[in-house]
Amino acid sequence: MTASLLGSTIGSIRIDALLGSGGMGEVYRGFDTKLERRVAVKTIRSAARLDGEMRARFLREARILSKLEHPAICQVYDLIESPEADYLIFEFVEGQTLTARLAQGPLPAAEAVAIAEKIALGLAVAHDERIVHRDLKPDNVMLTPSGAVKILDFGISRAAREREPLTGSEPARAAVRLPPPSLETSATAPTVLLPRDPSESATFDADLTRLGSVVGTLRYMSPEQASAQEVAEPSDLFSLGILLQELLTGRSPYPGDLRPAELLAAVARGDSRPLATDDGDLERLVADLKRQNPGHRPTARETAERLRYVLERPERQRRQRLRRWAAMIAFAGLVSVLLVVSVLAVRASRAAERAEREAARANEEARRASAAALRANREGETTRQVADFLVGLFEQASPDSNAGREVTAREIVDRGVAQVDLELGSQPLIQAKLQDTLGTIYHRMGRFDEAERLLQRALETRGEQSEEPLDLARTRAHLGVVYADRGRWDEADNLLEQAVLVFQELAPNSAELAQLLNDRATVAFDTGRFEEARTLYEATLATQKAAGIAGSLEEASTLNNLGIL
After folding, report:
1. Beta bridge pairs of residue 40
2. Residues taking part in catalysis
3. Is the pLDDT of residue 376 over 80?
4. Please, what sign has the CA dihedral across residues 229, 230, 231, 232?
């Protein structure tokens, strides 16, 4: 196939430009005149065309991929067959590959982690359908001008290259496309087909592999792929670990001076340089992704959760600082109230002749202050017990307590839920507080079913006549946010409205009320109630000002939302 395809028409698709060429054929930009959209057209050379069995498998995977609606997956539209060649029709993606981006040097950590998270989410959707990429590398990931990430050639590399089964004792061979020496360490690594038995010395030629061998790009292969073993979903996660390390460091985890046979042996052993950064969470994640045993690697969805944790860490730390300052300010205010009450009590005792109305008013103020102090003490004790419970829970998760095995965040939270049910039935306030806390953690981990179930139990534990109306309102608000994330708008709005009413009565000028108003505004915005959303966003701004957080990131976020509206 040559550039003479330019200007021709394949079905309803007009070929406009040649984008590149590879081992299977050329890639063109085309225009579908029937559906009026740009497409990418990949030709399959006659030498690489599929036989009946492989065509059936490819069509089966292509049908699944065409139904996957995820922004990180480049969709397959069609397969057009002709006597001269076969043509794959893809979604047309504008932008640059990660290879081109890496040519500018390592990426900032936040950008690299955000890209890796989008890739992991795309892999999770495909893995749910048992589709494995098998050739995840910088060349197969596109960055669009809008910041989106697109994974190319999903599930196609194996189906498009496999051949008839081997017969007799003829060994499977490895084929490698060797780049010029100066490009050996670049992101465009050689594509290899490897022997089934790792003990055999690899023979490098230009032939494509037969069934039973493996296709991939050597520097991004998993050990099982390099050893010609069965390749499943964990293989993609190993490749993602190699890719993430390269994004963060700007260089391959393998030394650049290895000959192909030495590189093959290193990949099969899983012998790569560890990631060295000042971020322990990222180091542990990359190490877990590059584990030799496929069963010990995290899934794509677990990987996305851990990457999201890293991305949201600065915001969490900022919120923790704000909460600490808020607690200090509240304590100082409580001390001031108690001092005022004491002064009033002394004055009342020395001026008994003053009007009974004045004494009654002072007594009422003292009663309210005492009730506030009692409530604060009770909340302080509850908070201490909750903190002690969580500290004990994480101490149980230490490697020393688990025979050296690292315990996942999911296991820690699941253990906590079980212990709350088992140990705290006689302490409903503590039990409800922990159910709310653990339910919120489930929500942040993306485990919406568990979050909803635990938050509903927290409401049942508290009861409608709760002694802590603000805590009850917080739990309703947390459950409302879960419902909103699940698209259950009416239930979300009802719970958030109840929480707002409580805070407007008991904490009218608080930052928490501002957040609740903002959440209600977002629900109204997402359901098309724009006038109501505008009113709520304006109320949010007024409450933020009253709470003394004007000029904060929260106010900036609200102004941004109002501007978008």
Report:
1. 29, 90
2. 135
3. no
4. negative
Tokens of 112: 């690299």
What pLDDT score was predicted for residue 176? 35
Give me the sheet containing 141-143, strands edge to edge.
96-97, 141-143, 149-151
Q: What CA–CA distance (Å, rounded) separates 304 from 324?
A: 29
Q: What is the pLDDT of residues 42-78, one digit of tens each?
A: 887 665 556 666 666 666 767 777 777 799 998 888 8
Nearest-angstrom CA–CA distance, 343 and 354? 15
Question: CA 178, CA 23: separation in Å to the nearest integer?
Answer: 12
Q: What DSSP line would sit under 12-60, residue for residue?
A: TEEEEEEEEE-SS-EEEEEEETTTTEEEEEEEE-GGG---HHHHHHHHH
CA-nearest of 360, 375, 378, 368 to 341 is 368
Nearest to 97 by CA among 71, 42, 39, 136: 136
Please, which residues bridge with residue 460 across strands?
none
Using a cut of 0.70, tell me whether the model's pTM lies above it: no
Q: How far, in Å, CA of 282 to CA of 240, rounded? A: 13
Question: Please, what is the average pLDDT of the chain?
Answer: 78
Of the candidates 121, 116, 124, 115, the one whose C-alpha atom is nearest the C-alpha of residue 144 is: 115
Q: Is the pLDDT of residue 206 over 70?
A: no
Tell me the C-alpha distance between 42 and 106, whole Å: 30
CA distance 3 to 6: 6
Distance from C-alpha of 196 to C-alpha of 227, rounded to nearest angstrom: 6
**Tell me, what's the pLDDT at 250?**
92
Q: Would you say 305 and 277 are in contact if contact means Cβ atoms under 8 Å apart?
A: no
Q: At how many degrees (to 10) do helices 300-350 and 356-396 cross?
A: 150
- pLDDT tens digits, residue range 508-565? 999 999 999 999 999 999 999 999 999 999 999 999 899 888 888 889 989 999 999 9
User: How far, in Å, CA of 461 to CA of 482, rounded?
Assistant: 19
